Amino acid sequence: MARVWKCTGLRWSPGGPVLVWDGGRRSAPARGKRVAFAVPEGGVRACAGARGNDCPVRAVVPGRSTGGRCEECARLERAHSVAADTVAGDPRPYRVYLAWFGPGRVKVGITAVERGPARLLEQGAVCFTWLGTGPLMAARRTEELLRAALRVPDRVPYTEKRAVRSALPGTEAERAAEVRELHARAVALDGWPESLRPEPCRVVDHVGVFGLGEVPGAFGEVLELVPGGSVGGELVAAAGPDLHLAVGGRGVVVLDTRLMTGWELVPAGPEGDGCAFPVREFGREPDGLF
Description:
This protein is of the alpha+beta class. 20% of the residues lie in helices and 27% in strands.
């Protein structure tokens, strides 16, 4: 009987992406290597629980949920969360950043200084620059200032990130242009909190880290995992929570690893190359399995 694995998510380390499995085991998916797994027939997706604890009711969650949690566990997970704006007294210093995901897709955000660029790697930012450093509430006010004055959002949907990621400009200078222009406009604004120290524009490019420079653009994204389905292919790139897999002769498909949590997974043999999960082609509505 095949061994069953449960994925708890993808993390970014200084050495690249790492898949974390139930029980603490870790594996680093390497570009050029095969990634293949299946969901057994009759499988169900269980709630991932909250803050390191199992779901008390062992709820079943929808396959398309990227959070992978029931409503109550999702609420508990976001309690005391800086990202959810439920914490105001965090004494750690924070940075405000501009992140670029592709043409016309720039966002403003904040992250703790101690995390370095990890937040940007986790989001799949193709390039970014810091804007300023200071206390949490000063960083929050600066974020709100940019949203109001420059119409810069604080969120870019992952579907949009993936679609524009498939057709990125070829040079670092081209990819950095929007970030540099917005940085210049941002630091010229009045109303910056006095406790936030502005930082010069130094654009960091992640195309090489993600492996996006020499691979074909993806044609679509996996919508959900389903019982009896499988995926198998060569890993050609990884960005944020996404694995870009070359699946046989069909091309490259993007798998959001957050969709893997809660499922019992088994290895797929060489005959499993391809994708038997629902896929949405970029620019089209989903059309079932292929």
